[in-house]
Design brief:
By secondary structure, this protein is α+β, with helices and mostly antiparallel strands. The chain folds into two domains: 235 residues, no CATH class; 109 residues, no CATH class. The protein contains seven helices and 19 strands. Strand 11 and strand 12 form a beta hairpin. Helix 2 crosses helix 4.
């Protein structure tokens, strides 16, 4: 099946330039049901540590892309139980780095529940919950509005909540992404990347020099329901550019980076200390973006081994005229009153799905309100 991609208008020349040097080698879409064609456990070997059955075991389900990113069924037959447990600590840092995103986007964890997000000190708590008949909304509690509060710009309609994520180790986040990429690559390249596998399984800090990731944030209309991965390979083997570039699409975010220490790249001097320009692939979109669509692009460095407390912001937008014509509704009495929205008084926010209907009940009757 042929798939046609597009990108943002101002990035189309950049995409053409990238495709002059690279071509897609693999496109991975997470399956919607369990994978049945796996090697028997007695015939398996681990591509990470190199051990085979019976010197190691393969009893656990090893997700090629972590379950916390929304992958339920894409599992491998080449990761042993010991390596699976070892990589789990990297996934913890990845979850803390992602922060509140999984809660707001409704990405479930292994227990099939969307995780509750708590900032340090529980100053901000976000969870999926029911409220007045809306069963799949997100409630955000601001437990100390003087520290973490909603700031509203009545002129522009922009509202923002500034908070702190749980602390994470940036290099462990990079290793979690690298582990995904080294799981995705075709088996024919495993020995060519043996040095990268060894540094990863040995938890080496030497990987820090490679820990740069380009991060795109896209409009929500371009988000994916389950992770999608692209592996790009350079077209000319002898050309002095990195052989593989990897992209992971998660919800409306793209993480893109080069795969380090391919044997041929080492041999042609890609790691001889010189600086090289590395082209990266702009977002590949299935639908043409709206002219007003905005995206962001940032090169993030994940080389630090120090625990990082990163600030984050939730942004909301509302028509300024709506903010000027708000009405307060008392669900106990079923009455309305004019009000001025004072952001300092807000202690909870409920985000409801589009076209939801809330049901308010009092002693006289039930009342439904469109959201």
């Amino acid at each position: 099946m042929e798939i046609t991609f597009t990108t943002f208008a101002e990035l189309k020349d950049e995409l053409i330039s990238f495709l002059n040097k690279y071509e897609p080698e693999s496109l991975i879409v997470c399956p919607t049901e369990k994978v049945k064609v796996l090697k028997p456990k007695s015939e398996r070997s681990c591509r990470f540590c190199g051990r085979s059955f019976p010197e190691t075991t393969f009893n656990k389900e090893s997700h090629i892309i972590p379950h916390l990113l929304g992958n339920k069924y894409y599992i491998s037959d080449f990761e042993c139980d010991s390596c699976n447990s070892f990589f789990g600590k990297f996934e913890n840092d990845l979850a803390y780095f992602l922060g509140i995103v999984r809660t707001i986007q409704g990405v479930s964890s292994k227990n099939k529940k969307v995780p509750t997000f708590k900032s340090p000190g529980d100053l901000l708590i976000a969870k999926r919950t029911e409220l007045h008949g809306v069963s799949d909304g997100v409630k955000i509690d601001l437990n100390d509005p003087s520290i973490v509060g909603l700031k509203i710009n009545h002129e522009t309609g922009e509202s923002r909540i500034k908070f702190t994520k749980q602390p994470y180790v940036p290099l462990n986040v990079y290793k979690a992404f690298l582990k995904i990429a080294l799981s995705i690559i075709p088996s024919k390249y495993v020995e060519d990347y043996r040095k990268a596998y060894q540094l990863l399984i040995n938890n080496s800090s030497s990987l820090a020099i490679f820990a740069n990731i380009v991060v795109y944030e896209l409009p929500l209309e371009h988000k994916v329901g389950a992770p999608v991965c692209f592996l790009f390979k350079k077209k000319v083997g002898a050309e002095k550019v990195i052989t593989h570039i990897f992209s992971l699409y998660f919800q409306n975010t793209i993480f893109q980076f080069t795969l380090p220490l391919f044997e041929e790249d080492i041999n042609i001097g890609m790691y001889d200390g010189n600086t090289y320009s590395i082209p990266m692939c702009p977002p590949l979109l299935l639908i043409e973006p709206e002219p007003s669509s905005n995206y962001s692009r940032e090169l993030k460095n994940f080389s630090s081994l120090e625990s990082t407390k990163e600030e984050a912001v939730i942004l909301f937008y509302c028509d300024p005229s709506t903010l000027k014509n708000l009405m307060a509704f008392d669900p106990n009495t079923g009455t309305y009153s004019e009000t001025t929205l004072d952001s300092d008084e807000i202690v909870s926010i409920f985000i409801a799905p589009v076209n939801s209907k809330m049901t308010f009940t009092n002693d006289q009757d039930d009342k439904q309100e469109d959201i």
